Amino acid sequence: MDKPIMAKATAVWLVDNTTLTFRQIAEFCGLHELEVQGIADGDVAAGVKGFDPIANNQLVQEEIDKAEADPAHNLRLKFNPSAVGEEKRRGPRYTPLSKRQDRPASILWLVKFHPELSDGQISKLVGTTKPTIQAIRERTHWNIANIQPIDPVALGLCKQSELDAIVQKAAAKKAAEGAVMSDDERRKLVSTEQSLGMEPEPKLPTAISGLETFSLSNDAEDEKEEPVPDADSFFNLPDNDEDEDED
Fold first, then answer.
1. Residues 104 and 163 occupy one common structural domain
2. What's the pLDDT tens digit per position in 222-242?
3. 204 pLDDT more than 60
């Protein structure tokens, strides 16, 4: 781990208790320099209680003194043997409690628009389990009737770059296997930004779909010519001979 825990609270403490520059605090806490300036001005992290990195065994006073004397010096975390290898731990992504109810909607979106993704890739992307993914694939999930597909990026469950990386990885794997892809599959394997920029395929409206080969008459009937009616047949007029006899 190269960043302190409770980074924003640690930045609040460093702003209040040291003379470190905004850049030094931002580098140490993994924040933007303007965000640290906002903390100093009281516009950011209002009401956040400072977290003492010295008392919590993350920094030593000598390191702070050295950084205060040299503005170009970057703070370094105190060596913690128990944290060695922590960044290499692998497993499902942690999802906050407030967003866990949105995971089924994101899974349904990924299954629908990126069926080439494996259950393991989806599990790591949105932090879910394989049985849940399988239930949504087979539409046996208990709430499947009420689930609407929503982009996991829009829900904040993953980053756009992470989704694009997995999609590109699936494309490379598909190409390495030598499988022939259809146009729909090829469109799904490009990045989301590229797919959103594509022009939609022209399709017939649903109301007239299937009527492009419909005909009102047979070919045999078209060949028969109907006789042209006489103009006099439209009027019920008496003959001239009958008019002369009456006179």
1. yes
2. 555 566 666 566 565 565 555
3. no
pLDDT in tens, 103-152: 999 999 999 998 888 898 998 888 888 999 999 999 999 999 999 999 99
Structure tokens at 24: 């030094």
Q: Which domain holds residue 79?
A: 7-83
pLDDT tops 60 at residue 195: no
Tell which residue, 150, 149, 183, 186, has the closest CA to residue 168. Answer: 186
Which of 83, 105, 124 is where one domain is finished?
A: 83
Contacts of range 199-205, beta carbons closer than 8 Å, 24 or more positions apart: none
Residue 20 forms part of a structural domain: yes
d(CA 102, CA 92) in angstroms, rounded, equals 16
Q: Same domain, yes or no, for 139 and 48? A: no
Distance CA 189, CA 203 (A): 22
Are 99 and 193 in a shared domain? Answer: yes
Structural domain count of the chain = 2
Taking alpha carbons only, the member of 43, 59, 41 closest to residue 51 is 59
Are 181 and 174 in contact, with CB atoms under 8 Å apart? yes
Please, what is the average pLDDT of the chain? 77
> Is 0.85 topped by the overall pTM?
no
Q: At residue 157, what is the residue type?
A: L
